[in-house]
Amino acid sequence: MDKHTLDILEFDKVRALVAARAACSLGKAAAHRLEPSVQPGEIHHQQALTTEMTEALRAGLRPAFGGLHDIRHLVRRAQVGGVLEAAELAETVETLRALGELDRWLARIGDQFPRLGGLRQGVGEFAGIVVAIEGCLDNRGTILDTASRRLSTIRREIGQVEERIQETLRQMLRSPEIRRVLRFPNFTMVGHHYVLPVSKDHRGEVSGSVLRTSASNETVYIEPTAIGERSAQLSFLRAREAKEVRRILRWLSAQVGMVAESLLGTLETMAELDLIHARARLAVDYQMTAPHFNQEARLVLRSARHPLLEALFRGDPALARPPEAKDPSPARPEAPTAPSAESSPSPAVEPDLPASTPPVVPPPAQPRTVVPIDVNLGVRFHILVVTGPNTGGKTVALKTVGLLAIMAQSGLHVPVAEGSDFPVFDDVLADIGDEQSLEQSLSTFSSHVRRITEILGKATPRSLVLLDELGAGTDPADGAALGRAILDELDRIGSRSIVTTHIGDLKTYALSSPGAENAAVEFDDETLQPRYRLHIGDIGQSNALKIARHLHLPEPVIARAESYLAQRRSGGIPEWEVLQKLRKEAEDARQAALQAQAEADRTREALARRLAELQDETRQADAVAEARARLQPGDRVVVPRLGYDRPGRIVKLDPRKKTAVVAIGHVTWNVAIDELIPQTVRTPAASAPASKAPSARPAISLDEFDQE
Fold first, then answer.
1. Which end of the chain has fewer beta carbons closer than 10 Å to its terminal beta carbon, N or C?
2. Residue 504: exposed, middle, or buried by beta-carbon count in 10 A (0-12, 13-18, 19+)?
3. Could you read off the pLDDT of 543-558 as tens digits, one per residue?
4. Which tens digit of pLDDT belongs to each residue from 390-406?
């Protein structure tokens, strides 16, 4: 999909919202790589996975990602024969245990959520590797004495030699002559060598090798000659220990390398699972719904909200900075926001109030909320021309439509109400905002023309085209002519298109084109404040003179502007206003009809479900009656009034009286045959287990492993 469009619609910030909800680095990396698809099958599959995970989260069935790390670099190193360190193997086994937990979670929820359960096919079995590593490492990543017989023997010998060395040093410390020359009365270690801390003034009074001097040069650390032989023996044993530890690490790394392909595939599956989990968390956090897709290239958005604006107003930490938009955010506070101290400085005490009067504290500002919009394309028209004043929310409406279409095709749920409908666009092409190019010495107008040329070359009947301020940046007459020609070309191509404009001649384009329709952003004539709602069928007014008067432009200037405007309108015939009113009434009637149709569809679906339930109940009753007719003494049955958990056995049948004698435990009961429910025991065929990656049992034991 068009990368320029993804950039200007700030899809990277949507990725950031998803990544912030991933549980581990695998999911975060996958979220930052998230791209919209143009394949309907893949889109439906990803949406179904998001829906199932959303339902699982709401049911309290959250996957446990604890302990899962991105160890792909370690696995690849082991795959080519590299040796992993003990800490790296500890991280690997922690991840393998987490993979086992997630595999069991997928198995538990597989019947209820089959698409999520199907991910188990990409999860390998690594119990053997876990056992091998846990048998050699403790929880802190230290090689255990029991990792091999050889290591156990070597460490036992090391312990014995160390005990002899320490005993010799303890005997030396008992000597008054030795204690007199020490800086402190204890032995210590330098590296793996046992030493005595001798004062520098008595250096020659202790026989041995100086291994280190203190920073102040007041203390020298001497390995006494009395332990020299055993110290050399200890060094030899430690070298053997290091060699054996290295051999164990090589063996464990080889076990990891042998299942590298399966493990890497499993980690990719876990990255996908975490991405699905992050998408579902975003849907739950922002009350999003699963988009419904159609084949008719019809786009219907009901109560659509811009997700990035909502995240901004919530203070979502995933957004490092607020999204930039040409129009201010289409949002309104629930209550008037109190002026800040910076914008409205005032003294601490009003001059006409006593000094003891406490200052008036303004009420806290209410949280801002995004005003939802309704948009449709492809139902009666495929081009929507949006007009209205600046700051009214035209650009944000444009971005909302484009961003939600991209999110829907990325497997994400979208912030819209039920009844919304999406096509699968082959591309979303947008030209929004001031794109003056200093590097290419292009003006804003030139940049827009170049971008529109690119868009017209790519657009198809299955594309969504979004153009902001069409015809702006040049002479109004030329801009209007060029804008009409561009709209004609989009009409010829058949793309689903939304354009915004301030040019008056383009506002009436929809009146002469059956494939186009007008829309206007709502504006309060009394307060001169935007309401950020979008009204399809209306032609927006710029309200420039009203805004200018509100901003205290000199009245003579405004009066002169009004006279010029009246002269310009005197020769015109305002039939378009009548036509606009008629079209608005028709649109209102159509919306009411669509709503009634949707209600009728829901009623029909409910009736169909009830009919299916009744038919199923009838089939079940027929099956039970047929089974009762075949009952024989000895058959097992259940009598509901005596308890479903107490099955019995038929002792005697009396078809004439339609009764039966049933033994339940040690008691017999006379019951009507119509009360009996036959117990038909069927042994289901064993289903083939899901294809799993090969088992990761060690192929060679440590004792058979080649030594270094």
1. C
2. middle
3. 666 667 666 778 888 7
4. 666 788 889 999 999 99
